[in-house]
C-alpha cells in the first residue's frame, strides 16, 4: 500500500531529492495551497527547531494528514558552522553587496568569506520533521560530509551545490546524477531516517 505524505515546500530541488529517496512505496505531494499560506517565522538556532516550527504549523492546514517539513543548509568548519541555519539568507544577513538571485549572491558571499582559506571542510545537514494536526510524530536527520570548492562545478542542483564536493563523489553536488545523489543527498538520508519511525 502506498502512503501519502504532504511536503511543506514548493522548492523543486527539495521535492526531487525527497522523491528520489522515497521510492515507490511513499507518494510525496506538495501541500495543497501552500503558496497562499503565510510562512511562519523560522527563529530557532537549530535545523531541527526550524523544521519543527514549519511541520507543526503547516500540518494544521491539512487536518488528518501527515505533513513533513525540513530545514537544511551548509555548515563550513572554517566559518564556525556558518552559513548554517541562515544558509538561504546568508548574503542578506551580512549585507553582502552583489547582484543576481539569492543563490548567486549566497555563493559569492561564501567565496568571499573563504578567500585564502585552505581548510574547506564542511557538510550539508538536513533535519526533517513529520507532524499531524500540529503534533510532531517523528524526526529524521541526514548529513553528508565534504569540502567547499574554490570554483563552481556543474549546472545541476541548486543553492550551494556547485561549490560542494561530497566525500566519495565523482563530482560536485551539481554534477552527480540521480543515482549518486540518492546515495549522497542529505535530504534523502533524512527521509530514509524518518520513514521507519513513522512505520508507514
From TrEMBL:
Substrate binds at residues 9-14, 72, 158-161, 186-187. Binds 1 Mg(2+) ion per subunit. Belongs to the HAM1 NTPase family. One of its GO terms (molecular function) is dITP diphosphatase activity. Mg(2+) binds at residues 41, 71. Pfam families: Ham1p_like. The active site is at residue 71. This is dITP/XTP pyrophosphatase. PANTHER family: INOSINE TRIPHOSPHATE PYROPHOSPHATASE, INOSINE TRIPHOSPHATE PYROPHOSPHATASE/HAM1 PROTEIN. It comes from the Bacteria. It comes from Granulicella aggregans. HAMAP family: Non_canon_purine_NTPase.
